[in-house]
Amino acid sequence: MRQxxxxxxxxxxxxxxxxxxxxxxxxxxxxxxxxxAAGLIPDxxxxxxxxxxxxxxxxxxxxxxxxxxxxxxxERTDLVFDGLDTVAEILLDGRPLGRVRNxxxxxxxxxxxxxxxxxxxxxxxxxxxxAVRAAVGDRPGAYPEPYQYVRKMACSFxxxxxxxxxxxxxxxxxxxxxxxxxxxxxxxxxxxVADGAGVVEPAVDVERTEGGxxxxxxxxxxxxxxxxxxxxxxGTVRLRVPDVRLWWPRGYDEQPLYDVELTLFDSExxxxxxxxxxxxxxxxxxxxPTRTAPASPWWSTGSGCSRAGSTGSRTTxxxxxxxxxxxxxxxxxxxxxAWTWCGCGVAGSTRARTSTTPATSWxx
Length: 364
Known about the structure:
- Helices cover 7% and strands 33% of the residues.
- The protein contains four helices and 20 strands.
- The two termini are 38 Å apart.
């Protein structure tokens, strides 16, 4: 079974103010929230203080903590970042582990048998944008800020409904994952509807510690199970779920979700010992409008708000204006088409403040 060591405590943030001062850092978090907690910047959501903190996004920032030695007895230990905002170099005792430049994905580094001083050094995304612009030339943009040159949420650079807060930081969880034999690295689900049945074809990528012994992957959903052989590092399993309940836009019918679980087994049918464990997710089957949608016209709608501010960690289910209060009688929009868009400043410019609990999700 995979074992996890959280790395959310013990971080410091080096503030480039010329004094070498190190500040306590919250992880998940971002530079703005740490500086605000330390009383070093004004609240950017009051008055015109947004302009007073513009310098934050143009500096380099460094997060540090100790990477512990030892840990559970497994063949492999990975350092996993669920999200880094945005351009950063990761070092262990001064030795580079990797460089990243995409806020929207996770990263994993092999640190088996290693320990020492873990450093995450963030560069200014403005410097990154300048370098990309020099390499690829000018690209069109609706706003003067260089959001189109970096893989970072565009609302960090301001919007018509929100402030310009160009954040940096470890904005999602970080941990050590200890595992052996094999783990499910990626799952790409193909979900369709055919003759009233739900068809699921998860394409599974597997990472191994060593060797290439055959593996089986078992998928279960809606009371249906199926297995397929993993040859090398990839395989696909196919399931057909009869009488599947379809997902409809709110106001037309219900939005059922199906729990899906994937498990690896060795060639003798045993669950991979010490492996990364089952992978799970929630999927839905969406009707095709040309075949099963109601006969009434559908229209696409969108919503945008910034009532609770752009630093999401200030947003709680009980706070007025939070997404938790976006109910059917409040801000929620009733979509008239199977596809709808929502832009929400509540969870905007500093995502580290955004809760991931179901209570804070939009009911669009």
